[in-house]
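User: Reviewer 2 asked us to show a designed sequence for the structure in our supplementary figure. I'm pasting the structure tokens here. Could you produce the per-position amino acids so we can include them in the response letter?
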């Protein structure tokens, strides 16, 4: 059993490693990393990970995830939850055949990230995914900038008491 101070130190180390590895992406606002008491949360806009309207990670998305993966491989007694979010614009006709709601699209994106992490050697037992669709917006959906902020993926790295 790990003590609370060991958990906190583990989260601090994870945060430091991620911010060092992703310094250019943080500077250019492609990635945001926040540290909480028992959680490190990485936020990446969907357009950085996926082609417009897509749900499978593209090359530039893989490049960013590949910078994160070595840190994730070193995790002990932690879990990784991947959350998908969209704006409130209804699914466009080209996607309707595959997804009936934004919730389904956000889950497909989260699952694609989880599958990619697993293929790269992250233990499947510590990974989970949830699609929130339009729920939990971080900005108003009445402007293009707000909608862009709401289209995101979040990866929460949590200790055992997360």
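Assistant: Here is a per-position design you can include in the supplement:
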């Amino acid at each position: 059993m790990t003590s609370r101070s060991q958990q906190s130190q583990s989260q601090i180390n994870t945060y430091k490693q991620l911010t060092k590895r992703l310094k250019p992406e943080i500077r250019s606002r492609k990635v945001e990393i926040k540290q909480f008491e028992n959680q490190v949360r990485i936020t990446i806009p969907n357009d950085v990970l996926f082609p417009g309207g897509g749900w499978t990670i593209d090359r530039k998305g893989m490049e960013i995830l590949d910078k994160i993966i070595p840190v994730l491989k070193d995790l002990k007694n932690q879990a990784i939850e991947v959350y998908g979010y969209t704006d409130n614009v209804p699914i466009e006709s080209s996607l309707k055949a595959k997804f009936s709601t934004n919730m389904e699209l956000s889950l497909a994106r989260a699952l694609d990230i989880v599958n990619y992490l697993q293929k790269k050697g992250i233990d499947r037992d510590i990974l989970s995914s949830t699609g929130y669709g339009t729920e939990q917006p971080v900005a108003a959906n009445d402007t293009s900038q707000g909608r862009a902020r709401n289209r995101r993926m979040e990866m929460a790295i949590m200790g055992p008491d997360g």
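For the response letter, you might also mention the following. The radius of gyration is 16 Å. The helical segments are 4-21, 23-27, 46-49, 59-73, 93-96, 102-119, 144-150.
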